[in-house]
Structures are given as C-alpha cells and as structure tokens.
C-alpha cells in the first residue's frame, strides 16, 4: 500500500511532517504563539466542529476551489489535538493515523483480507455493522445505544440512536406509522403551548423533532441534508425579495408581510419555471 517512490505520496508525507512541525512550533512554551499555547482540548473542540461544517458548506456549494483550504483547516484541528496529546504524553499524530488505518483495514476484509468482494452493498453494510459490534464489545460497550457520541449534532445523533434501536427490532413497521405519531406529537405540542409551561413545551417540541427524524430515516432521507437544502432555498428566495425591493430603493423593513409574501411567491414561481 505504501509507495515511497510515488511523487504525490512523498509530497503528502513531506507536507504532513511540515504541518506537524509548524504546530509544535506554535505550541512551544517559550517561542510559540501565546494564543495557541493557551488552548486545550475543550477550547479547540468548537473550532473542530465549525471547520467540519465549513467543509460540508463548500461541498454543498460545489466550491471546489475552496475545498482544499477547508479540508486543510479541518486537518489542522486533528494536528492541534494530536500535538496537545503528545505534550501530555497521551498519544501523537502517528497514533491517530495508525488507529484509522488499522480500522479501515480491519473493516474491509473483502479488500485487504481473504473475503470475497462479490457481495452486495447491503451485505457489506451488514458486515460493517457486525465488525463495529465486535469493536464495541471489545470496549465493554454492552448496551445497544452505547458508543453513540453525545457531541454529535442532535439531529444526527437522533438518527444513529434510532438505527441502533431498529437493529434489535424496536422500530415502527413503516412510514405510515411514523406519520401517525407525528400527528399525535403535534397535538401534544399544541396542548403544551396552551396549558403547560415552557419546559413542557420544549420537551414536546423535542419529541416532535425526534419523530420527524425517524420519518426521514424511514423515507431514506438524510434530515441534515434536507434541512440544509431548505435553508439554502429560504436564503435564495429571501434574497430575491431583497433584490426586488432594492429596485425601488427599499429594504424589507420598508415593506410589509403581504408584499413580501407576494414577492416570495414570485421568486418561488421563477425558480420552478427556470
């Protein structure tokens, strides 16, 4: 798998070594950057999440010229965490790279082992889950939901929790049952709004969102992607409202809801016609 004579691989190895060296210099207690020196795992974690989202944003926008920079920013987060761990005597970047390389080899016996590649994608997914179950058992994770990271975005974690429960049969038979549950949860939300306090209202709203995530799973829709697309659509159409008003030298605050609704409908019709 390694080919040190391959120019691209050699360049990649050189640049990773350079990046690790730069990070070590930034963290040097005597000559490094004060800001970098002050950071710890907790303070850097939000940046790690932010950079991952910016990678996704570049992909969604098909901003391929921006993607290398965004991936570099995300790689920096890995190097930053590894450097702090190295300083604490916990692990280093090589340990991180080795861990993921070993995991990929172990989880693809049909590529790196003796298993046949002649099986469906569905069977490969089942095999993958079986291997992950063995890994969880080795970590003494005995519960069905053990190992689903708390730090995941709530919508993503909801899907993962539901998938885990579904594997042991705790699931609705089909989307119709989930839609019926959505109607039930919607009614409970209205009741909470009218008769209960803010804590109960928030709880019922959370229940409704959880069931909506389950519907997405049954319909084989990625709810994160669906919501990102809805956000992008809202942004396009609202900007169309702003552009229409700007032709008259006005801004949204100079308009009213009825006019903006009409401009929204016009933007919607233009999108569908185009």
Automatic annotation (TrEMBL):
Keyword Endoplasmic reticulum: no
CDD domains: NTP-PPase_MazG_Cterm, NTP-PPase_MazG_Nterm
Pfam families per record: MazG (PF03819)
Coiled coil: none
Domain of life the protein comes from: Bacteria
PANTHER family: NUCLEOSIDE TRIPHOSPHATE PYROPHOSPHOHYDROLASE
Residue ranges occupied by any NTP pyrophosphohydrolase MazG-like domain in the UniProt entry: 39-112, 175-237
Record-listed E.C. numbers: 3.6.1.9
GO molecular function: nucleoside triphosphate diphosphatase activity
Record-given protein name: Nucleoside triphosphate pyrophosphohydrolase
Key words, A-Z: Hydrolase, Plasmid
């Amino acid at each position: 798998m390694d080919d040190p004579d391959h120019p691209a691989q050699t360049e990649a190895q050189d640049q990773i070594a350079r990046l690790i060296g730069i990070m070590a210099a930034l963290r040097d207690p005597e000559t490094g950057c004060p800001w970098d020196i002050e950071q710890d795992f907790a303070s850097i974690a939000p940046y790690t999440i932010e950079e991952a989202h910016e990678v996704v944003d570049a992909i969604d926008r098909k901003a391929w010229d921006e993607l290398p920079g965004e991936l570099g920013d995300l790689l920096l987060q890995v190097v930053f965490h590894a450097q702090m761990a190295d300083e604490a005597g916990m692990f280093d970047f090589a340990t991180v790279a080795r861990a993921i390389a070993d995991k990929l080899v172990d989880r693809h016996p049909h590529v790196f082992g003796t298993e046949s590649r002649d099986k469906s994608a569905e069977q490969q997914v089942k095999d993958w889950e079986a291997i992950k179950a063995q890994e969880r058992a080795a970590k003494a994770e005995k519960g069905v939901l053990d190992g689903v990271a708390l730090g995941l975005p709530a919508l993503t974690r909801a899907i993962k929790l539901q998938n885990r429960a579904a594997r042991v049969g705790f699931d609705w038979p089909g989307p119709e049952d989930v839609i019926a549950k959505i109607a039930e949860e919607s009614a409970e939300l209205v009741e909470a709004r009218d008769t209960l306090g803010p804590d109960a209202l928030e709880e019922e709203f959370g229940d409704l969102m959880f069931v909506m995530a389950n519907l997405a799973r049954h319909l084989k829709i990625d709810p994160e992607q669906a919501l990102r697309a809805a956000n992008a659509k809202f942004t396009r159409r609202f900007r169309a409202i702003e552009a229409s008003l700007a032709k008259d030298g006005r801004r949204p605050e100079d308009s009213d809801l009825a006019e903006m609704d009409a401009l929204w409908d016009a933007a919607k019709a233009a999108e569908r016609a185009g």
